[in-house]
Write a structure and sequence with these properties.
Blueprint: E1 2-4, E2 6-8, E3 12-19, H1 36-61, H2 63-76, H3 79-90, H4 95-113, H5 115-136, E4 150-154, H6 159-163, E5 170-175, H7 183-190, E6 195-197, E7 210-214, E8 219-222, H8 226-244, E9 260-264, H9 270-275, E10 280-285, H10 299-310, E11 317-321, H11 349-354, H12 356-371, E12 376-381, H13 387-399, E13 405-409, H14 412-416, H15 418-421, E14 428-430, H16 432-440, H17 458-474, E15 478-480, H18 488-496, E16 501-504, H19 509-516, H20 521-532, H21 537-555
Parallel strand pairs: 3-4, 4-5, 5-6, 9-10, 9-16, 10-11, 11-12, 12-13, 13-14, 14-15, 15-16
Antiparallel strand pairs: 1-8, 2-6, 3-7, 7-8
Helix pairs in contact: 1-2, 1-3, 1-4, 1-5, 2-5, 2-7, 3-4, 4-5, 10-12, 18-19, 18-20, 20-21
Length: about 575
């Protein structure tokens, strides 16, 4: 039996299933026999203890997990929720029931909003579970510890559980719920965990079942036969051999260079990216400098953070995306308007132009940081849609002392006029996540349309090809900095469409490097044509996979990489 879901990364694992314990049951809806003040004190103590525990877990985990767990801690400490709990307790509810009802109310409200907020609704369920477990004096439902390596199967994983996974024991994660932007997927990608999320049939897997979790194929194989097991073991061994091999620059088999760069959200991940073979940084997200601030950070505060990153890549290219505020990252000092559809509103370069001093300060800080280090700084503007926006950003970067300025191609408009955009910009970097969202009219943060959020769709690939062709004609580099670059199979197509560099989560560098070295320029151009000729995303993926397997068969057993 094969279950379909959304793979995170391209890894593969074999192991026996251990299911996550069921969540706490709904507490009975009855009047409390205790004094309301006593019940209220119990509720307050458990909310505070849960917030403190989540904060401590976040500090221990670090990285993206720290941000996620701190956000959950804020939920537990939210004054509005505390008021809702108090109102219910004073009306006669038990502390357990008051907490349950208050959190369910907020959860349903977020779920009804759609988009990013809907994706965060399950986090409230987890906080509620933890508060009620504290009230009951029992351990919060969490990851089992059977004493042997296992494949964890759950309805979904909370951020706290994902962050605390023991990677020596958990071979892979399979969830019945969740999409590509769920916290399970985000943290699994950061921790290099083999995972398939949104596999609805996972609810039918039982403890002890043997499974193959194939993230690269978006599949879970239950009760695999001997041939399927042998294929999985061979691919696991091949990945291990690649990981142990000396790291070399990215290139095709004919020597064509394809620099492989890292996507980073802070300087904390720089050392690990270098260790894994990143040849530079293709996307440095600067939002972390701004998101916890009530006012824009000063030039000196920003300069220190940027210098810390640049120092980790002496002599190497570091592409920094200026602040991408708006949509799911609202900032009061940039744009605090209540927009009915912020993804189509004042975000990216539009928001920065409306608050130009913020942009000027950031570019000034970046220029000063670059002057103190040996890195090759490049900057790019997010959400560019017009030539005029391109001209504005490039001129401002030049004015403030930055020599190389480009744009992100995330809108179909920018892709369709890429020739004119690249007549002004020094380079283009394609953000495949947003480009897919806007091409397919499918919110990339909404699980209900996750199937449409697929960069393999020929409509998306055609737009990427437009940019690649424009870059070649203008002699301008065209990078890919969306997560599409982390797919070893799709990476071949992207290079065939004209991408000159690929940037991704550092954990994906090894697989993509090996995939590229197996094919030459003619091969990847042919694979791009196969993908463009398909009717849809699934058909494009299948056609390219079949073409790759045919090429390997023609060349014999010498091809070791498995780009699946």
């Amino acid at each position: 039996m094969q279950l379909r879901g959304t793979g995170v990364g391209s890894g593969i694992a074999v192991g026996t299933v251990v299911r996550m314990a069921d969540p706490l049951p709904e507490p009975p809806d009855r009047r409390s026999e205790a004094d309301p003040e006593t019940e209220l004190e119990r509720a307050r103590a458990s909310l505070a203890a849960t917030a403190a525990d989540l904060t401590a877990r976040g500090s221990a985990a670090g990285g993206a997990a720290k941000d996620v767990l701190e956000a959950q801690a804020l939920m537990a400490a939210d004054p509005s929720l505390a008021t809702e709990v108090e109102t219910r307790v004073r009306a006669g509810s038990t502390a357990e029931r008051a907490v349950f009802d208050a959190f369910v109310g907020y959860r349903d409200m977020l779920a009804g909003m759609g988009g990013y907020l809907a994706e965060r609704a399950p986090d409230l369920d987890d906080v509620s579970q933890r508060v009620r477990a504290h009230l009951a004096g029992v351990p919060a439902p969490g990851v089992p510890a059977p004493g042997h390596p296992f494949v964890l199967v759950a309805g979904d994983l909370s951020p706290a559980d994902t962050a605390a996974l023991d990677l020596d024991q958990v071979l892979a994660v399979v969830t019945a719920e969740g999409g590509p932007t769920s916290h399970t997927a985000i943290l699994a990608r950061e921790k290099s965990i083999v995972a398939v999320v949104g596999a609805a049939g996972a609810v039918d897997l039982a403890d002890g079942d043997l499974v193959v979790v194939d993230a690269g194929a978006d599949a879970v194989i239950a009760s695999p036969d001997g041939e399927e097991l042998a294929d999985a073991e061979r691919r696991i061994a091949a990945r291990a051999a690649r990981a142990a091999a000396p790291v070399e620059p990215g290139r095709l088999s004919d020597g064509t260079p394809v620099p492989l760069l890292a996507n980073l959200g802070s300087a904390d991940g720089a050392a690990e990216a270098v260790r894994l073979g990143a040849e530079g940084v293709g996307l440095f997200r600067t939002e972390f400098v701004f998101l916890d601030a009530d006012v824009a950070p000063t030039v000196d505060e920003q300069r220190a953070e940027y210098a810390r990153l640049l120092e980790a890549f002496p002599g190497r290219k570091v592409v920094v995306r200026v602040l991408d505020a708006g949509a799911d990252k609202p900032l009061s000092f940039v744009n605090d308007d209540d927009e009915p559809n912020p993804a189509l509103g004042l975000r990216g370069i539009r928001a920065l132009r409306a608050a130009e001093q913020v942009l000027r300060d950031q570019l000034t800080a970046l220029a000063r940081a670059a002057s103190e280090t040996d890195a090759e700084l490049q900057v790019m503007a997010p959400m560019v849609a017009t030539v005029e926006e391109t001209r504005y950003f490039v001129a401002l970067a030049r004015e403030l002392g930055i020599g190389v300025a480009g744009v992100m191609v995330e809108t179909p408009a920018a892709a369709l006029i890429a020739d004119r955009v690249l007549a002004v910009a020094d380079f283009a970097s394609i953000g495949t996540n947003d480009l897919t969202q806007y091409t397919m009219a499918a919110d990339r943060l909404l699980g209900s349309v996750a199937a449409l959020q697929d960069p393999w769709h020929p409509a998306v690939l055609r737009l990427i090809g437009e940019v690649g062709e424009a870059g070649a004609e203008a002699g301008r580099p065209v990078g890919i900095c969306g997560e599409a670059a982390a797919d070893p199979l799709l990476a071949l197509v992207l290079v065939g469409l004209g991408a000159t560099s690929l940037s991704m989560s550092p954990s994906a560098l090894g697989d993509v490097r090996a995939s590229l070295r197996e094919f030459d320029r003619a091969d990847v151009a042919g694979l791009a044509r196969e993908a463009l000729a398909a009717e849809g995303a699934a058909e494009a993926r299948a056609a390219v996979r079949a073409a790759v397997e045919a090429m390997r068969a023609d060349r014999g057993p010498g091809s070791l990489n498995q780009a699946r």
